Amino acid sequence: MSKVMKSGFIFILAVVMLITGCSGNNEQAVDNKGNEEAEPAATLKDLPEPFGIKLQDMDGGGTLKGQYKGKKITVAVSSGSFENAIKAVAPYFEQVSGAKVEVQSIPSENLTDKVQLDLNSSHIYDIIITPIAFMHGFAEGDQLKDLQPFVDNPGIASPNLDIDDFIPSLLDIYGRYKGKLVAFPYKPDVQLFFYRKDLFEDSNVKAAFKEKNGNELKVPETPEEFVETAKFFTKSLNPDSPVTYGYSTMASKGRSRWLWINRLAYYGGTNVDENFKPAFNNKAGLDAMNTMLEIQKTTPKDLLQFGWDDANNFFATGEVAMMEQWPGLYSVIQGDKSKVKDKVGFAVTPGQAPTLGGWAIAMAKTSKQEELAYKFIEYVTSKDAELLKVEHTMDPTRKSNYDRPEVRDSQSFYPALLESLKAAKILADTDVPFISAKLNDIQEVSTHSVLNGQTTPEEALKSMADSFETEIGKLNLSK
Fold first, then answer.
1. Signal peptide position in this chain (predicted)?
2. What is the pTM of this model?
């Protein structure tokens, strides 16, 4: 995924041993006098070169000079790629700061509950990394530290921080809550539009489309163009289609609502307004629902059973012209068994308002090492240091890194990812503190009932809105 680690086997082994030492078990070496010593950290001259880029700013703009020696911070992360991404950067922070970073890995299914428990009572974690909607819940509960005073303090913040370099939508939606800067963006995520580039560029296909529809075949930008193109590529509606289905996605329970939400903002709706009132039981919500039903006519018959793996693997068979999915689909379509390898293009979802996911990094309000915790957050999200996480599926959150040719050209979907992140307006998880998961379930039941023909769009929208008002009404929330 990147052009990193040009050093030899000995260096790689040393770094692996070093990172393992940061896994949270706090093991220490013992010298020949029986005294415990911290394991040696890598020197900055040993830095890897992600994407072939020599990292220049790995000491916090000169603000990290070993002054935190003897101090420790604890970071709570989800197991797997998040854990690995943090461990890829932590050794360098330890060396320049003098501090110890303890990484506590938590299975993803337990992350939110365990973090909430700690914020309520245990107070072990200094830093947490969670999905955005849950982060906002912690902020509503006044459990996160406002980072703005640290950003504004020239005696603490790195001169190279450049907070305006974060993609604006990420900083505003991920980071800000009720006038406070409660987090920094960490892992961006957004629904992308994947399309069969080979079909869209085929002269015979283009001629057939123009003859049938009277206009040029192009990557659809509006819902109307989306429906028209999907129908052209569906054999049941157009026997001359070069593929069986015009469109596919995930639509099993827990995932179906995004097929609707990807158009909701285009028509002028959203999940909840600034006062936490449902904002979809209107013409915008209805138009998005009707578009969803039109698109369903162009999908596989098993669509409502498609989960993540099912949908991705089906698209890789080459039977589908277009798909909306999270960026993780890329690794599937580029796999050795994929029949569409190097045949797929990438764009913003039709309607130009894709569903936004993502994770943020924040400081617990009860941290006893506030300044050190801030410096770590600043460090791992800095322009240079964030490149070390990209190898672990954590795409960049900064505009300047997408501007680096080495980074931009490393993944063919990166230009579309950047544009999609800029255009996104609605979060994948309904952004209401404390009950986000419950509201997601409400939307899923209603959306699924429309897709399987049990209820009309009008009935589903009213049911959703009524349930939203009931559940949100139990809380005491205000913007």
1. 1-28
2. 0.86
Classify each residue of 367-386 as buried b or exposed e, where b means 16 or more C-beta atoms within 10 Å of its C-beta: bebbebbbbbbbbbbbbbbb
Among 3.30.1050.10, 3.40.50.300, 3.40.190.10, 3.40.50.10860, name the CATH number for the domain at 192-356+427-473.
Answer: 3.40.190.10
| Alpha-carbon torsion, ordered 9, 10, 13, 19, to 10 deg | -120
Q: Where are the domains of the chain?
A: 9-189+357-423, 192-356+427-473
Distance CA 375, CA 379 (A): 6
Name which CATH class applies to 9-189+357-423.
alpha beta
Residues pairing with 361 in the sheet = 129, 184
C-alpha distances in Å from residue 407, one per residue of 49, 84, 424: 12, 20, 22
- Classify burial at 342, counting beta carbons within 10 Å of its beta carbon; exposed 0-12, middle 13-18, buried 19 or more: exposed
Name the token pair of 249: 């996605």
Taking the chain (479 residues) in runs of 10, the rounded mean pLDDT of each run is 38 35 36 38 74 94 97 97 97 96 96 95 97 91 97 98 95 93 97 98 98 97 98 98 98 94 97 94 98 98 96 98 96 96 98 96 98 98 96 94 96 96 92 92 96 97 97 83
CA-based torsion, 449, 452, 455, 460: positive or negative? positive
Indicate the burial class of 275 (C-beta count within 10 angstroms; 0-12, 13-18, 19 or more).
Answer: exposed
Q: What is the DSSP string of 60-100?
A: GGGT-SSTTTT-EEEEEEETTHHHHHHHHHHHHHHHHH--E
